[in-house]
Amino acid sequence: MVLHVNGTAYELTLDHRTTVLDVLREHLGLTGAKKGCDHGQCGACTVLVDGRRANSCLMLAVAQDGRHITTIEGLAHGERLHPLQEAFVERDALQCGYCTPGQICSAVGVLQEAADGFPSHVTPADAPQGGPVPLTVEEIRERMSGNLCRCGAYPRIVEAVHDVSTDQGVAS
Q1: Domain closes at, from 74, 103, 133
Q2: For position 124, which CATH number holds?
Q3: Could you report the per-residue pLDDT of 49-80, keeping only the tens digit for each?
Q4: Minimal CA–CA distance to 69: which of 13, 9, 144, 114?
């Protein structure tokens, strides 16, 4: 099978029970995505699959054949950090850092989902359809709720995501 990870194609022969998280960490040496709960409940393993966020601990690698996976290691452009990585540093949106890679990958997905017009549970029913969903603080909290932080850095995480959403014109 072939997985495209951070822009590089990897031809892999794997046990059919191997998860994407285990491929990343054990076969490719990419340790940014963390194994937290291993049940899809904490979000520490969040990566982007074809641009959409996903819990890599729940995904069988064989089912992702040919897909493009982006991890925290693949977000920067050379020495230039991704805008969300910069915002997390500027806002001090981390403490121990264990959840940070998953938080940032999830936030990248949140920005794209909002830009693509996907509503969340808190999006008003009368919101215009087809256009970007404005990212209010409530929207960001709801959309990021699948990523847990034991240290409680949530206020700064929300601020960092809001900063970047403002820069991208999807904030409210």
Answers
A1: 74
A2: 1.10.150.120
A3: 999 999 999 999 999 999 999 999 999 999 99
A4: 9
Domain housing 61? 2-74
Classified as helix, coil or strand, 116 is coil
- Determine contact, residues 14/70, Cβ cutoff 8 Å: no
How many C-beta atoms lie closer than 10 Å to residue 97's C-beta?
12
**Do 69 and 132 sit in the same domain of this protein?**
no
Where in 12-154 does DSSP place strands (E)?
46-49, 52-55, 68-70
Q: Let me know whether 100 and 143 are in one domain.
A: yes
Contact 91/163 with Cβ under 8 angstroms? yes
Summary mean pLDDT of the chain: 95
Distances (CA, A) of 114 to 30, 123, 135, 169, 171: 28, 10, 7, 11, 9
Q: Point out the domain boundary residue: 21, 54, 74.
A: 74
Does 70 share its domain with 90? Answer: no
Report how far residue 33's alpha carbon sits from residue 57's, in angstroms, rounded to the nearest whole number.
9
